[in-house]
Amino acid sequence: MILFALVIVAILFFMSWNLFLSNRWVHITTSLISSLLLLATIGFSIANFNQHYGMHLVNHTHTEKLASMSPKQSMLVYEKVGSAKKHEIVAYRSTNNGSVKHTNPDVSVKNRIVTTKSAKPSLKVTHRQWSYRSNAARDWFGLAMKHQTKSTVNTFYVPKSWIVLSASQAKVMKQSAKKIALNNKHQMNSQQAKSMLKQKAQAYVQAKMMKAMQKDPKMTASQKKAVMKQAMHEFKNQMKRKAMQKIMKQVLAKAKTAPEGYVAK
């Protein structure tokens, strides 16, 4: 409405200064009134554009689910941008199979990564937005100035087990993972490693068998066989987990040699 008012007042201003010339007092009065109205209308318009007159700041917040960027290791990846590297883009997923999303690199956007005791990671997005104080203010200035977002804060809440790496570190991690896994596989295939693994497997199965026999001394041969099979299955899974943990530890140690990253604590 302020734009329409500005047009109408401008027309009145023109008419008052160019008409009513025959009556001096009418001319002066209408000219002064139209001039004041024009100045007031322009002033309110400038105040709305520059100082957000008629508006106030309101926070709009929503929370999203957060999933790891890697299926093997819970992690979040960011990259420094800009000539001074003072801003960053955070890459993330909302679901395990979802597409990769990126935060806005705009200077008004800030990203915070916070470790939490919660096991469920999440992303809290807070938009600080200029909104009109009342319907009247919206009616007057709505066509001139729309709602604007002043700033956005993306807060990533991640468990302590998550790691946060820069894009360069994530790249090093990906490149070194296969190489380290292959080296570990070669080491495990040595005769000494196989012999040690066999001894550990026998000890694990025997311990499980003794525990089962203590609970049920009258176990049948088929029951004993089932216990041994289950124990061997558990042992293999345990060894796989330990091997993966060892690989990831080596990979992370390699990745952290690249700049701009840290392990969440």
Short description:
With 265 residues, this protein is α+β, with helices and mostly antiparallel strands. It has helices at residues 2-18, 24-51, 135-141, 167-188, 191-215, 221-255, and strands spanning 55-65, 75-81, 87-92, 101-102, 109-116, 122-132, 148-159, 163-166, 262-263. InterPro entries: DUF4811 (IPR032083).
Describe this entry's structure for a reader:
This is DUF4811 domain-containing protein. It comes from Acetilactobacillus jinshanensis. The chain has helices spanning 2-18, 24-51, 135-141, 167-188, 191-215, 221-255; strands spanning 55-65, 75-81, 87-92, 101-102, 109-116, 122-132, 148-159, 163-166, 262-263. The chain is α+β, with helices and mostly antiparallel strands. The chain folds into three domains: 2-51; 56-161, no CATH class; 167-259, no CATH class. 11% of the residues are buried. It is 51% helix and 24% strand. A hairpin with an 8-residue loop joins strand 3 and strand 4 (101-102). Strands 4-3-2-8-9 form a five-stranded mixed beta sheet. The two termini are 54 Å apart. It has six helices and nine strands.
What distinguishing features does this structure have?
3 domains, transmembrane helix, DUF4811 domain-containing protein, 6 helices, four-stranded mixed beta sheet, disordered C terminus, 24% strand, alpha+beta, 9 strands, DUF4811, 265 residues, transmembrane, five-stranded mixed beta sheet, membrane
